[in-house]
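Researcher: We plan to redesign the surface later, but first we want a full-length starting point. Tokens attached.
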């Protein structure tokens, strides 16, 4: 059975894929649907959803269009989630591969370095890093990547430890392949399945971290995001509940969709584990 057939058998994964597709479509169409800046004040504040034609999600405390903020915020959340995950993989995969392949002192040194980052709570470290570098999209991406790479390194190390003594790897050594070729061509391709699944979950975690940082006022001050929208509305929850609920639901659905897709990828890439459940 092919990968796509196995993936399509998981209805939750298909639902998650549809939701992700809609969020991505909204992000791509945001400049066309709302060409004006989402920071622009377009109506009187606290318009309820549907109260005035053309503002179907209402306006916020400054009279800005909530729908415009939601659309532009989708782009920010997805972009930060994807880029920070790619950077975390770029750090974690090489370190985990070197530790698992060479073992010994190299493994000990790299794992102690990894454990140093794991001893500090992720969110606390992210706050400190963003505060030191000053809030911006670059600092948020870098902070999220720095707190996200240790699990990748440990996962890749474990995969390398279980694969490096297999027959085809020993055969590659006997024919004279270099360590670099063995790592990149022989072992690494066989560790990609769990890494891909982990990456899908890391994007969801990155979106939550970015939203939390923006909620605390550590987001990019020039960029509209879902976390900023919730944070800006937290003092008017009783007066205008929709200002917090709408972006909160957007975050919930996006993170849920990513987790469902990750579960579907796990089932499709590891059919034996899926049958054992």
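Model: Full-length starting sequence:
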């Amino acid at each position: 059975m092919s990968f796509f057939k196995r993936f399509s058998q998981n209805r939750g994964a298909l639902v998650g894929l549809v939701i992700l597709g809609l969020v991505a479509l909204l992000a791509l169409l945001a400049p066309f649907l709302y060409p004006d800046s989402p920071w622009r004040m377009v109506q009187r504040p606290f318009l309820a959803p549907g109260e005035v034609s053309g503002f179907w999600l209402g306006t916020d405390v400054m009279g800005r269009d909530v729908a415009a903020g939601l659309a532009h915020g989708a782009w920010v959340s997805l972009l930060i989630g994807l880029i920070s995950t790619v950077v975390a993989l770029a750090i974690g995969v090489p370190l985990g591969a070197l530790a698992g392949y060479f073992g010994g002192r190299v493994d000990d040194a790299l794992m102690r370095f990894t454990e140093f980052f794991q001893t500090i709570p992720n969110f606390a470290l992210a706050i400190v890093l963003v505060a030191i570098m000053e809030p911006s999209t670059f600092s948020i991406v870098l902070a999220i990547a720095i707190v996200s790479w240790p699990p990748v390194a440990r996962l890749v190390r474990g995969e390398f430890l279980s694969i490096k003594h297999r027959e085809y790897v020993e055969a590659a050594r006997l024919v004279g392949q270099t360590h670099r070729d063995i790592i990149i061509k022989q072992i690494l391709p066989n560790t990609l399945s769990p890494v891909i699944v982990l990456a899908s979950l890391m994007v969801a975690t990155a979106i939550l971290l970015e939203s939390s940082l923006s909620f605390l006022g550590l987001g990019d001050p020039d960029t509209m995001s879902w976390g900023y929208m919730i944070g800006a509305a937290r003092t008017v929850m009783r007066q205008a509940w929709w200002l917090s609920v709408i972006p909160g639901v957007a975050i919930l659905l996006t993170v849920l969709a990513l987790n469902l897709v990750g579960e579907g990828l796990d089932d499709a890439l590891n059919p034996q584990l899926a049958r054992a459940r």
